[in-house]
Amino acid sequence: MKVLSLSVIFFIMTINPVLSMDGEVVNNNASEIKVQKEETTEINKVETLKTLGYFHEDTKQQDINKRNAIIRFQSEHNLTVDGIYGPQSETVLSALVNGSERRYLDVIDQPPTKGKWMTINKTKRILTLYEGDKVMKKYPVAQGKEPGLTPEGKFTIVNKLVNPGWGGAGIAQPVKGGSPNNPLGYRWMGINHGGGGSYGIHGNNNPRSIGTNASLGCVRMINSDVAELFDIISLKTPVWIGTHEKLKEWGVDQKSYLGYIEEIRLAEEKATKEKQAIKQAEIEKAKQEEAMKQAEIEKVLQEKEESNKQIEEPENIPTIKEYLEYINGIQH
C-alpha cells in the first residue's frame, strides 16, 4: 500500500527561485513559505479529523477541541493517547486518507458477558466499551499520576451519579456537585474498589489532562464522552483495568492499527514480488520457446543447404579422362 503523507496529499506548492549574479539560488521568502506550509498542513489535518468524525465542539476553546480530536483518533486506533500528533498518528491518518479500511482490531478470547462491559488500558490510556467480543466505542482517558494509583483488577460499576460532589480528597476544600470547578465533572461511575466512592470513572475540570497521567487514581474522561458512556452502561457492568500486557494475559488483545498497516504493506509487497516472479517466469518461458523455434529454423535451413549441395555436386560421376580410359579398355 503506497501511503502518501498529509503534507503531500493536502499541500502542493511551487517555488520559483531567483538566481543571484553568480548563479546561486536565492529564496528570500523561505521562512515565510515554511510557516505557510506548516499552517496549511495543520488546517488540513484538522479538516481531515473533522471529516472522519473526530472533531466535536466540546468547548469554546478551539485548541482544546483540536486536541480532543487527536486523542479520540488515537484511542480509536489503539495508539498511545497523549494528544501529540506525531509520526504514528500521521502514519495512520495518511493511511485512512489513502483508502485504508476503518476497523477495530481487538481480539477477545472470553468476554465476561455477552452484554456491555469495559476495559481500561493503563499503558495506552484508552477506555474501550465492548458488547460481548465486539467493540462498541473507544474513549481517551487520564489516569493516576503515579503507576500504582489507578487500581488494577476486574471490577464492576456499583454506583452512578449525576453532578457528584467532590470531598476534597484530604488535600483541598470540597466542591459542590454541578460546579464547573468540580474535578469530577458532571458524571460519576464508581467501581467496587474502595467502597465505590473512592475510585471511579468521571468527567473533569481540566480538559488538557485527558491523555496524561494526572489523577489521584480515578479515570478521567472528556465531559461529553463520559456523559455518553454514563447513559449506555448500567450498574454491575464489568470493568477490567490493567496494563496492555495484563489485559493480554486476561485474553484482551488490543492491537494497534499500525500493525494492521504493516500487515497490509507486507501482503502487498509479497503480492508484488509474486507478480514479478510470475512475469519473469513468463519472460523466461517466452525466451526458451523463441530459442527452440530459432533452433528448429536453423536445423531446417541446414538440412536444405545440405540437400542442395548434394544436387549440385553428385558423387561418383567420372571425369572425361576416366570415361575415355574406360572406353579404350573395353575396345582392347
Automatic annotation (TrEMBL):
Q: Which Gene3D superfamilies match?
A: L,D-transpeptidase catalytic domain-like, PGBD-like superfamily/PGBD
Q: What is the lineage of its organism?
A: Bacteria, Bacillati, Bacillota, Clostridia, Peptostreptococcales
Which CDD domains does the annotation name? YkuD_like (cd16913)
The Gene Ontology biological process annotation of the record reads:
cell wall organization; peptidoglycan-protein cross-linking; regulation of cell shape
Residue runs in coiled coils: 261-305
- Please name the source species: Alkaliphilus metalliredigens (strain QYMF)
Q: Which residues form the L,D-TPase catalytic domain?
A: 116-242
What protein name does the entry list?
ErfK/YbiS/YcfS/YnhG family protein
Q: Which UniProt keywords apply?
A: Cell shape, Cell wall biogenesis/degradation, Coiled coil, Peptidoglycan synthesis, Signal, Transferase
Pathway membership of this protein?
Answer: Cell wall biogenesis; peptidoglycan biosynthesis
Where are the active-site residues found?
202 (proton donor/acceptor), 218 (nucleophile)
Q: Which InterPro entries match?
A: LD-transpeptidase (IPR050979), LD_TPept_cat_dom (IPR005490), Peptidoglycan-bd-like (IPR002477), PGBD-like_sf (IPR036365), PGBDSf (IPR036366), Transpep_catalytic_dom (IPR038063)
- What Pfam families does the record tag this protein with? PG_binding_1, YkuD
- Highest taxon in the source lineage: Bacteria
Signal sequence residues:
1-20
Report if keyword Cell wall biogenesis/degradation is assigned: yes
What GO annotations for molecular function exist for this entry? peptidoglycan L,D-transpeptidase activity; transferase activity
One GO location term (cellular component):
extracellular region
